[in-house]
Amino acid sequence: xxxxxxxxxxxxxxxxxxxxxxxxxxxxxxxxxxxxxxxxxxxxxxxxxxxxxxxxxxxxxxxxxxxxxxxxxxxxxxxxxxxxxxxxxxxxxxxxxxxxxxxxxxxxxxxxxxxxxxxxxxxxxxxxxxxxxxxxxxxxxxxxxxxxxxxxxxxxxxxxxxxxxxxxxxxxxxxxxxxxxxxxxxxxxxxxxxxxxxxxxxxxxxxxxxxxxxxxxxxxxxxxxxxxxxxxxxxxxxxxxxxxxxxxxxxxxxxxxxxxxxxxxxxxxxxxxxxxxxxxxxxx
Length: 284
Prior knowledge:
about 60% helix
């Protein structure tokens, strides 16, 4: 009779003690609603690579949901003079953007023929229509009322995006904080129509220069300026990886949503969110 082979590993007491009966209790999958999450990848073609396209964009939308959660809280913290709380949240926003940057690395493994095989399944849908991305842009200060139009068919989403358009941005709240600290921010940058694009101001730069030239006296405002710099730096990387990935996969074809594709995305690279914070580096 053959002797059983002994288990070379010692018994795992922790594993043996783990709960395994979830007939009456909430499981990991229940808590995360994994049936709904993992059942949301519905391909519309037979193309193998459509799964990659769907997962990459769904994961990005989940990261953007968290990004908005943190960004909204950071804006409220700046508005309430709670800068230490804001710094924690803004640091997390930058880390989330790093994840979004690296997500393009995976999509870049899709070749032009592979994308062409699944592209008809997209019809006129496009990341250009992402309402969460539009809210991020608006909350960071890149306001454009025309970008509300893709959401007019959904009144609930349109209301959320419009609220972000009409509210002070992160940078607007930062400037109001500077003014509350006695720094010479021009009055027309403290109360204005928040839905309009931000216009750079020499007066705003002078206020930031006071902070940067005497950082010890204005340390938390100086740190705020650098947090904003980190944030925009990472946001630029996110945009750049988007452009290069699109060019790599589809070249200069027009986007499925009707934009010029790469030509449109390259224009977005020229958008500066916090212009005075960048300009002061030349003038220091």
